[in-house]
Fold this sequence. Notes:
Low-confidence stretches: 1-10, 12-18
Oligomer: single chain
Strand content: over 45%
CATH superfamily: TolB, C-terminal domain
Radius of gyration: 17 Å
Number of helices: 1
Amino acid sequence: MALALAVLVGCERSASSAPPPPAAPAANAPTIAYERTVAGNQDLYVTEHGTERRLTDAPGTDMLPRYTRDGRTIYFASERAGNWQIYAMPAGGGEATRVRTNAHREWQVEPSPDGARIAYLSNQGGAEQLWVMDLATKAERMIVAHGRKTIFGNPSWSPDGARLTFSSNAEVGHQIYVTNADGTGQERLTGFRRGGCEPRFHPDGRHVLHVSRGHVLGDKSRIVERDLATGAEKVLVDWPALNYTPTYSPDASEVAFTSNITGDWVVYRQRIADGKSWRVTFGPGAARSPEYAPR
């Protein structure tokens, strides 16, 4: 299922091999949530001070954990009820509550910085589209539609909640876009020859992190930071592997991401200032989609 999901968002994954970075000292390790597949079931896990703890254990696939800004709640998508739907649960663990209930495929959710809204992907309009819902009133609004066969990916809020970045294959391959939160002012950030997927806003709101693989899908991808004002790009991770699902730490001093540098999917951290890296996840089972807990 994980590979099928990767194809769906336009970031196919295969294998590579190289020596992995070492583990970080537990005392300095941040809290990071992620998805892990063990014995055929994909659940959410969290590592705290270097110790892993399982958060969900329902049958079915749970994916893409996203913390609220206050760190109290994790939103995620799950197919435990038979189709992809949006859930929320206490960040420390406990019962997951279904946020929306319908017969559509709804997933890849992210709460807004003020916790008042969620952005998510839904096919309730027939084609997959980007939607926003007000959590208090339950009022929902379609923000972006790109056509009947479009595949979207990974909406991410700017820190002020005014904009969203996302990926879409409406044009040539997957590209990175940014739009105002009401759907106006849409702009494509990436060039046709490079493409991109899995964008995340920088905590300063002036940069966007994303995966760059190009349209000739080989066995390597880079993690790139783009300056929204100048268009300049800086490569942060260029390992000889497939490197995916990047995200910034709360203070933007490092990034966490998934790589198959060892031949399996493992979560890593990398400090931006000097490129020093640490391995986060160990043991059997592929781990993906890291998310730092707010500090």
